[in-house]
Design goal:
elongated; alpha+beta; 9 strands; CHRD domain-containing protein; Immunoglobulin-like; 4-stranded antiparallel beta sheet; CHRD; 40% strand; 19% helix
């Protein structure tokens, strides 16, 4: 009887230990990741301009890790710099994610955001590129969630 009890106890402890080991415990819940997008044009710049250039931004922001992963493309411009700024449509704001190399499209990258930058990203931010022709900004797109 004692032998059966010991065997049963070992089996129960083993099953409990096996169940506690979750291989997928490093996955991010779907609601922790926000998908982002923007379409860039000269008409969205402040002030608006007549540039024929266009661009796009796609990204994802993980609320748990504070990591933004992004891809930005542009066509019809020769940018001198580009970044993500705080600011809603019609307003200019401070840059908080600079793009390290704007010489060719596409631009991909990651950035770990502060709480303030994350709040800006999710409540009002935009992507823009500057050029020698439009030093204040040639194309811009306001970031929205998908």
């Amino acid at each position: 009887m004692f032998k059966k009890f010991t065997s049963a106890a070992v089996l129960i402890v083993g099953l409990a230990a096996f169940t506690a080991c979750d291989k997928d415990n490093n996955t991010t819940p779907a609601n922790d990741t926000v998908q982002l997008t923007a379409s860039l044009t000269g008409a969205q710049e402040v002030p608006a301009n007549a540039s024929a250039g266009t661009g796009s931004f796609t990204g994802s922001y993980n609320k748990s890790t504070h990591v933004l992963t992004y891809t930005v493309t542009y066509q019809g411009i020769t940018p001198t710099m580009g970044h993500i700024h705080a600011g809603v449509a019609g307003q200019n704001g401070d840059a908080f994610v600079p793009f390290s190399n704007v010489a060719s499209s596409p631009i991909t990258g990651t950035a770990t955001l502060s709480d303030a930058s994350a709040n800006s990203l999710l409540s009002g931010a935009y992507v823009n590129f500057h050029s020698s022709a439009y030093a204040g900004g040639e194309i811009r797109g306001n970031i929205t969630t998908k």
